[in-house]
Design goal:
This is histidine kinase. With 482 residues, the protein is an alpha+beta fold. Helix content is 56%, strand content 17%.
Amino acid sequence: MKKIQSLIEKIGLKRYLKSLQFRIFIILCVVGIAPILLMKMSILKNYQDQSLIQRGKMLQNQCENFADRMGDSLQGDDLQLDAFETEMDQLATLYNGRMVVVDDEFKVIKDTFNLDEGKTLVSREVIQCFKNETSLTHDGEYKFIELALPIRESVNKQVIGALVISSETADIVENKEELSRKVFVLQSVLMLVVLVTAFYLSRYLVKPFARVTKSLEKVSGGFLDGDLMILDYTETREMSEAYNQMLARMKTLDDSRQEFVSNVSHELKTPITSMKVLADSLLMQEDVPAELYREFMGDIAEEIERENKIINDLLSLVKMDKKAADVNIQSTNINELIELIMKRLRPIAQKRNIELTLDSYKPVIAEVDETKLTLALSNLMENAVKYNKDGGWVRISINTDHKYFYVKVEDNGIGIPKEDQEHIFERFYRVDKSHSREIGGTGLGLAIARSGILMHHGIIKVYSEEGEGTTFTVRVPLVYQE
């Protein structure tokens, strides 16, 4: 058994049996072969029925004429059959059967087989004859047919006897068997044609899917160029469109990954380079004054702090990118959460005389990851303070409805140019790089904020006018859904 299974797997039969091509092949075979099998049954059944009907009509036509002549020759009340005996024997021989004449007392007065003469014959067919009815029947195995005719006198048309004729149908059975053999040959040829046609047609029908598979294999091998255009079927067209959309997203993600790695390398390298330059400058000088030594060490400390901030932001971003399984959801008072963030930011705002206010329209209790949502909102509110002008204002508002809660962060700061607004959530993107470096920005704050909001299945939008201020709106579901 194991050897057979191994052989099946080796030749790929198991894989073929599970394939779409094999299923299409089976369907085509069933659809093609079933009518052929039904055709044979129908042909043979129709031939048999028509042959029996034809034989019965021919027998009935000839025997009705014979029965009428017997009634016309009647003299007295008794049937006189002497003149018809020879003709009866000939008819019986012609139809390879038997003829029996029954009088009005149900007595057999003539039997071509000479078996039942003088005996009484009472049967359903004979009784029907005396009711002036003709009956044509055949046995269950179609070995013979039986015709029963009334014999009527010529004057009053009164039934005076019954003529019962039975005829073998062996020739019909033999012809049916011969026809069955011929139909079997035709059936075999047609079934072979159906099998071959189904095999090649199934291969042809799945070819578009094979092209889709090859394209997906190229993607898995690292080839991302070229759209897929397979328009053979509606399904393959939809698969092509979905594939092209997926490919476009993969290209975007790949480009974003490469750009992110490049940006991370650059951002981490810059402080290290600055520290190395400062350290080399100190090492190259002899008898360095304490004031200069202190100044250079202060600059090195600032670069280390900058490096540390970049690393912390990167770690925060990695946490945001983790799966939903790492999300710690709990019921949280959003009003208190925002007030706590504002408490941390007020010292920074007071140094620049920036007014920081909160408008809380309703108490909001929501299912969120407190740590990640705090990090997201902190970045929005901290940016509103940092990228503001001295003496400006920052307003935070909270509201809710039956399904979502809303947080709005407004400021009257420097604003964001229109051309930069679609890029601000990208990692390491800075609107004004020189100004961002002055205030210690890493270009990851808004990326972290966006990831935190999306993790909660929320939405974040920005509205800004350069020189007038910026507004961020956040919408988050009250109930977290995985």
